[in-house]
């Protein structure tokens, strides 16, 4: 009977996730909350704990990020990124993804990639490099970047799960595994991706466009298509303040002695530290760069962040309710399977990322299972990071659509069969290489 109830309740959870995926956006949160209602009122389960700490981190980070965006900080960061990419045009399949990764880590969002896409496309094509190569890997690299950012929604969800007893695995412990794993994954993936698709000279579709005069030939004396951004002193100051806030969070994570003490005489946990630092950063941006506060809710970062928070609230509450009622069964049954074959954990995170296109949702859904199974925290963090590439397995993400539209050569394709698009192979390769590297780094110095 217990097994029947477990399977039935699991089907409710999965069904709500699927329905939320079909609705997308805030629909994920709505269906998650509805799932909680079914488990509580129909199956008489005790309500789980809503992810309050994670939500508070998401809200304050989104607020500070939106202040920075309104002040022009993201435009300034984009201009710096474009200059870095332009310095090594022949190595753009490696350099562009690394720059996209770096700036997504700093900003805590992959939205920074959008203005860079036309720059990447133009530089690649004019230097005779198939644009789909750097474009596809740059898009996918921003996925794993959010497992390396101290201020991403996914990291907020992760820290609130691991930075507690009995694990006490803090932000810096996670970053020292995920960052090198992601960098190694991007470097190795660039080698593979640089061989995907036909070269421009051998691609009949591109050559036909050149012959018809629709696009110029590579090496033509065309000016680079600059991202249409306005760089201002206020934007530079806002971005500097925000990035200093990110650096401060890392420093507090590295040196516990710098943190104030709580009521029990122990260093304050990183969750409130992140919240406090981001509040201060947002206030300093307000005082120094003077963005229009009334415009903050209209910023793209704010809108995307609020949607993520709602989705995180509903689905995380749903999974916590289910997991809380079946902790022993999962730890002994499913947990035993995950312990014996840890790659199943990575597959779980990957699949939830595919279904929900939300790394924070995948974190709150699957990581508790990995923790209950007793997977070493270092290994868990490394596999968690690599699986984030899964949000790009299907060609439904905004940055994928934008990359295809910016590619005037037509080499970047969205496909027609879900698996024939330009991002499919880069997603699988980056996930595999980052997971493998993450497992190695996790074994070396993880918890």
From TrEMBL:
Membrane topology type: Multi-pass membrane protein
UniProt subcellular location: Cell inner membrane
Keyword field: Cell inner membrane, Cell membrane, Membrane, Transmembrane, Transmembrane helix, Transport
Ranges annotated as spanning the membrane: 30-47, 54-74, 94-114, 135-162, 174-193, 238-255, 267-288, 300-318, 330-354, 366-394, 423-445
Main location: membrane
One family name in Pfam for this protein: DcuA_DcuB
PANTHER family assigned: ANAEROBIC C4-DICARBOXYLATE TRANSPORTER DCUB
Alphabetical list of NCBIfam families matching this protein: Dcu (TIGR00770), PRK09412.1 (NF006927), PRK12489.1 (NF009136)
Record's protein name: Anaerobic C4-dicarboxylate transporter family protein
Native species: Leucobacter rhizosphaerae
